[in-house]
Amino acid sequence: MDQLTIDRIATAHPKIREELKNYYIECNNKLPKGVRLRFAYVYRSVEEQNKLYSQRPKVTNAKGGQSIHNYGLAFDIAILLDKDNNGTFESIDWNISSPYFKLVVEYFKSKGYEHGGDWKNFKDYPHFQKAFGHTWQSLKVKDSFKDINGLTYPKI
User: Fold this and answer.
1) What is the mean pLDDT of residues 71-97?
2) CATH number for the domain including 32?
3) Fewest beta carbons less than 10 Å away: which of 9, 16, 68, 103?
4) What residues contact residue 61 under an 8 Å CB cut-off, 6+ apart?
């Protein structure tokens, strides 16, 4: 498994944290040798979101507080390849048409996660979220709590 991803999953909202870890392991085990799933982002602070929003070329339409990442209910994926077969997984495959990317997309959609690649306007192919029927607007005004990791999440 990818320890960086496991650490990032630890920042997910407690409501999805354990299932997300289990799904990550299960999905990763469906990939062939030499291919690994990584979560590029899970929780993202408002400051981090604003920095991404300002980046060019444009990678997001969401300002700080407007992303489901800001509430720990989203993650972005990357497919890592071990091209040299030495266990380093140094290459990232961003090809959304690859069979590995498609496998991961179908897997998480089958588990109830919304895929950003299905959005009508701004397609966000690496993005997945489970917002439990909430929008960023409703999550933003919910009562919140601090978790043991020091991050703040909405009560859902």
Assistant:
1) 92
2) 3.30.1380.10
3) 103
4) 53, 121, 122
The position carrying tokens 């299905």 is 118
C-beta atoms surrounding 127 within 10 Å: 23
Q: Give the containing element (helix H, strand E) for 92.
A: strand 91-93
Query: Could you tell me the residue range of the domain that residue 135 belongs to?
Result: 3-154
- For the cut 80, the answer to whether the pLDDT of residue 88 exceeds it is yes
At 3 the pLDDT is 93
Entry pTM: 0.94
Whether residue 99 is preceded by a cis peptide bond, meaning omega within 30 degrees of 0, is no
* DSSP string computed for 50-82: HHHHH-SS---SPPTTSSGGGGT-EEEEEEEE-
144 close to 152: Cβ distance less than 8 angstroms: yes
Domain count for the chain, please give it: 1
